[in-house]
């Protein structure tokens, strides 16, 4: 009798485990955890963007794009990659093409993964 | 209770002796022989009584729950630097875990005892065979550096001496870490479950792939 009840309990637990396993979120996400800007010796602005990736099943998050739009520069700088897996962190470096970005000029940072777009703002350094 | 007993044979004999010796005839009063008082002791109560176990939270219990279980979390968190350099080494972090049992159903206790426990769980009820809705809170430092709450389900199975000498557990839990995650754990316990080792694995979550916990728990 005791063995039967133990088997029943373990079976119930296994069923619960399977149900919980279904809770694993297959969705991927990418977040900005930090952003810094400094000026290179050639007067261009360098932006470092810290990212952290998440994917519920532990896999690759897919292609993502990081873009910086500098006030005073017509074309934004964009970099696309597919090198991040669940839990990975990355610092993406974007450098302006113009050396005439004034100190304090706004810099808009956007990170896009699928149809999700997150952003952050910075001011150009001296 | 103290009923007067019928005259004994010795008493009757004394009365008969008085009659034969003519005490009544000589006009002397008969000697008053005190009747012995006999106290009948009641029969012992043969019905068996027991006090059902119903442990309640106390200050001592609450204080014991604050004792954390130390743990080491091992995982992989790859970092890609700004110039493309990759740091992919495994990382370890120290942590502390606190456990709480909102509900437990024991299938190992005597049938005359209640099977359900809430929050306060006597070691025998847990380690002799039970299934519990568990909740643990843990802080993990290092590369994780966050507080996690893990609701889950765990079954305890006795191995030796109804689990007092040795018992094992199987469980699963969920936690929030950049989305919902699922982990599985196995454990082995001695000293009525007071001391044990638990291994928690999250196959689909690299930063917290494995956690080894020295479980300290009493009630």
The main pleated sheet of chain B reads as: 8 strands, antiparallel, barrel
Overall mean pLDDT of chain A: 83
- The CATH top-level class label of one domain in chain B: Mainly Beta
Total domain units of chain A: 1
Give the mean pLDDT of chain B: 84
Describe this protein's structure.
The complex is a heterodimer of chains A (126) and B (219). Chain A is an alpha+beta fold. Chain A has a single domain (26-123), classed as Immunoglobulin-like, CATH 2.60.40.10. Chain A contains 1 helix and 7 strands, in the order αβββββββ. In chain A, the strands form 2 sheets. Chain A has a 4-stranded antiparallel sheet with strand order 4-3-6-7, with no helix packed on it. Chain A has a 3-stranded antiparallel sheet with strand order 1-2-5, with no helix packed on it. In chain A, a hairpin with a 5-residue loop joins strand 1 and strand 2. The longest helix of chain A has 20 residues, at 2-21. Chain B has a domain at 68-216: Beta Barrel (Porin), CATH 2.40.160. Chain B is 11% helix and 42% strand. Chain B has 3 helices and 11 strands; from the N terminus they run ααβββββαββββββ. Chain B has an 8-stranded antiparallel β-barrel with strand order 1-4-6-7-8-9-10-11. A two-stranded antiparallel ribbon of chain B has the order 2-3. The longest helix of chain B has 12 residues, at 9-20. Classes of the chains: A alpha+beta (126), B mainly beta (219). Chain A binds chain B through residues 2, 5-6, 9-10, 12-13, 16-17, 20-21, 23-25, 27, 29, 31, 48, 52, 54, 56-58, 83-93, and chain B through 75-83, 107, 129, 131, 152-155, 157, 170-174, 177-182, 184, 203-207. Strand 5 of chain A pairs parallel with strand 2 (79-80) of chain B, so a sheet runs across the interface.
């Amino acid at each position: 009798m005791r063995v039967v009840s133990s088997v029943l309990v373990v079976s119930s637990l296994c069923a619960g485990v399977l149900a919980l396993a279904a809770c694993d979120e297959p969705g991927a996400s990418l977040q900005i955890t930090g952003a810094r800007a400094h000026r290179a010796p050639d007067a261009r602005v360098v932006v470092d963007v810290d990212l952290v990736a998440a994917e519920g099943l532990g896999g690759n998050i897919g292609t993502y794009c990081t873009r910086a739009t500098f006030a005073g520069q017509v074309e934004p700088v964009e970099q696309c990659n597919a090198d991040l897996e669940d839990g990975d962190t990355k610092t993406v470096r974007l450098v302006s093409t113009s050396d005439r970005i004034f100190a304090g000029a706004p810099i808009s940072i956007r990170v896009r993964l699928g149809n999700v777009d997150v952003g952050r703002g910075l001011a150009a350094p001296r | 209770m103290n009923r007067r007993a019928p005259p004994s044979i010795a008493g009757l004999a004394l009365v008969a002796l008085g009659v034969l010796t003519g005490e009544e005839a000589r006009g002397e009063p008969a000697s008053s022989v005190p009747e012995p008082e006999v106290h009948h002791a009641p029969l012992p109560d043969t019905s068996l009584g027991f006090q059902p176990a119903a442990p309640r939270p106390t200050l001592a219990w609450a204080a014991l729950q604050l004792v954390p279980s130390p743990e080491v979390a091992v995982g992989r968190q790859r970092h890609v630097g700004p110039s493309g350099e990759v740091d992919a080494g495994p990382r370890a972090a120290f942590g502390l875990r606190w456990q709480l049992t909102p509900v437990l159903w024991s299938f190992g206790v005597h049938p005359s005892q209640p099977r359900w426990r809430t929050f306060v769980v006597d070691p025998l009820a847990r380690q002799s065979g039970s299934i519990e809705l568990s909740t643990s809170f843990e802080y993990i430092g290092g590369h994780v550096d966050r507080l996690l709450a893990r609701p889950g389900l765990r079954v305890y199975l006795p191995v030796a001496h109804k689990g007092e000498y040795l018992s094992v557990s199987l469980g699963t839990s969920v936690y929030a870490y950049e989305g919902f995650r699922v982990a599985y754990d196995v454990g082995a316990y001695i000293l009525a479950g007071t001391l044990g080792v638990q291994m928690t694995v999250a196959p689909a979550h690299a930063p917290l792939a494995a956690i080894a916990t020295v479980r300290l728990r009493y009630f």
